[in-house]
Amino acid sequence: MKAKFKAHRDYVIGEISPKLYGSFIEHLGRAVYGGIYKPGHPSADDMGFRRDVLELVRKLNIPIVRYPGGNFVSGYNWMDGIGDKFKRPRREELAWSSIETNQVGIDEFQEWASRAGSEVMLAVNLGTGTVEDAKNLVEYCNFEKGTQYSDLRRANGFEKPFGIKTWCLGNEMDGDWQIGHKTASEYGRIACEAAKIMKLVDPSIELVACGSSHSGMETFGEWEAEVLKHCWAYVDYISLHSYYGNRDGDTASFLGCSLNMDAFIKSVAAVCDYIKAVKRSDKTMYLSFDEWNVWFHSNEQDSKIEKWQVAPPLLEDLYTFEDALVVGCLLITLLKNSDRVKIACLAQLVNVIAPIMTENGGKAWAQTIYWPFLYTSLYGRGTALRCIVECDSYETKAYGTVPYVEAIATRNESELTIFAVNRSLENDIEMELDLSDFGEMSLVGHIKLNCADLKAVNTAVQPDKVMPSKGKTENMTATLEKHSWNVIRFRIK
Ligand code: AHR
To answer: Are the C-beta atoms of 216 and 257 separated by less than 8 Å?
Structure first.
């Protein structure tokens, strides 16, 4: 098959926010305990953080990590996780029916994040929590000294404020599974009041209001509109969450799920713009796609996990090669919408629906989805370009007509980079590249991710079954092998 790809230096989508490559760590399963934190592990550092995991995380170049939930945050008292570790309470953790030991809290997590080279994106509890708890947490983290909570932080050994800039006003408050679930107007009101008081403590913070838990929610659209009517003046972003899966074994459809993500983003942007008009506002509401990934492999095994364990192996999806193709398509979709999506968090980071897996006492390794995330995070920086892709399409049950090629180009001062997925399960595609507007260029390299077995996984025993290798681009024609993810880099002279 043949395709054509054209990019032009003046056809710009927008600046790519570095925070598009964020991730997420929740107190859920083995994400924290056994994942990032395991005192006594051979690789543990002075604070009990796994160095092997930190090394894999650092490579991903993740600017921001959302914490501590997720559903967990809606029943969490942040005060349980500070101070003397021996005095911290063990609690029933009701979102995931586990036991929370509170050995890691905000003090430890902000230290972990700084060792990982990331900022923290901190969620406040608007389920069982109050507006005052949210205010106290901002004071604890960001106020310098001389007040009850800032002095408590200093007494706990942290002289300098943490300076946390990005905050989530609760999590998925539209969902009836959420502890403290609310109607849109109930949530809109509390989000508004929490936002107001949090910004009184620290006017420099940015706030994310909860959008819908996914685009299939009955209240989707109305929820965003009602919430924003209440808190428009005080918030900077609205959140989107979406998880995809290949439950019917229909790979061709599954590979098209990024079309759903694209439509979701455009719908939420439209609702934001509607409220902007109603409010006669000149502010643009940005989008925080703060949970996205593939999630379905572990659903069945999770229903059998015994309740009330410490760090049970929940949501441990073992990702296949085809999942990596989907993650590649979803990343391209985020880039295509980078004028509006300014934060995105791959959910999650370690063990729980994650690119990085660990054995409690043993190894850490990269799952298949690690690779497209790594290279997009490394090279998909700067400006996203509006590209023209001419290619054939195919019909799917779930997502209608889907083009065989998903692709985008990004550029910075010295490089132009193309990310492309060939969704065809049968045919290689020769993609002709028209980049003539950029003048003389030289190929830096073509990396591809491909595997004959779509269901191949990386495991502790065989961590390198799905690994990137060298792709072929010659004479401005890129070979996109059947079912492959590709990154092609050019130096601009
Ligand atoms: O990421 C796993 C869970 O998915 C989160 O806790 C929740 O916000 C979402 O439903």
So the answer is: no
User: CATH: 1.10.10.10, 3.50.50.60, 2.60.40.1180, 3.90.1030.10. Which one for 386-492?
Assistant: 2.60.40.1180
Quick one: 17-382 is in which CATH superfamily? Glycosidases (3.20.20.80)
Domain boundaries, the chain: 17-382, 386-492
Task: Tell me, in angstroms, the distance from the centre of ligand 1 to residue 352's CA.
Answer: 10
| Strand ranges across the sheet with 415-422 | 12-15, 383-385, 405-411, 415-422, 484-492, 441-449, 468-470
Q: Which amino acid is at 73?
A: V
> Which H or E run contains 302?
helix 299-303
Name which residue sits closest to atom 5 of ligand 1, judged by CA.
70
HSE-CB for 362 with a 13 A CA cutoff: 7
Of the residues 291, 316, 322, 406, only one is catalytic, namely 291
In angstroms, the CA 37 to CA 49 distance is 4
Residue from 71, 169, 176, 289 whose mutation best tests the ligand 1 pocket (most atoms within 8 A of CB): 71
Whether the pLDDT of residue 188 is over 90: the answer is: yes
Q: What average pLDDT does this structure show over 454-471?
A: 98
Cα–Cα distance measured from residue 394 to residue 401, given in angstroms and rounded to the nearest whole number = 6
Question: Contact at 8 Å (CB) between 346 and 353?
Answer: no
Structure confidence at residue 250 as a pLDDT band (50, 70, 90):
very high
Predicted local confidence at residue 354, as pLDDT? 98
